[in-house]
Amino acid sequence: MTEVPLLVTRCGSCTLRYLPRAGPCPRCGASNPLPFSVPPLGSVLAATELTSPAAGWPAPHRLALVELAESVRVLAIVEGELPSIGSTVEVVHDVETYHTRPPH
Ligand SMILES: [Zn+2]
Question: How many Å lie between the centroid of ligand 1 and the Cα of residue 33?
Fold first, then answer.
């Protein structure tokens, strides 16, 4: 897993914060995104465990909805035990996915 810095995008026009993605701002359509790095810690809003995940995923497959800085939310794959609601996790971004793990 190749870890990359955890980035959030701020729209230069309407100031919406969102996860980096291709294309224009999802709210106003402007094309002047301003990426900035955020701390890799977030608060767990929800977490679930899929006992029969889609083909290709190991079971059980655990997912957490995590709120990062700037109120940006990310759905991340959980490494290890299912985190409790309100707990703090570290969010790791590799090239393709987001993961959580217990904070250091
Ligand atoms: Zn915008």
Answer: 8
Q: Looking at residues 8-34, what average pLDDT do you find?
A: 95
Q: Could you give all domains of the chain from N- to C-terminal order, each with its CATH number?
A: 3-101 (2.40.50.840)
pLDDT at 31: 95
Residue 40 CA to ligand 1 centre (angstroms): 24
Dist. CA 93 → ligand 1 center (Å): 24
E runs forming strands in the chain: 3-4, 7-11, 17-18, 33-37, 41-50, 61-67, 73-78, 88-94, 98-101
What's this model's pTM, rounded to 2 decimal places?
0.85
Q: Quick one: CA torsion of 53, 86, 100, 72, rounded to 10 degrees?
A: 100
Give 29 Cα–ligand 1 centroid separation in angstroms: 6
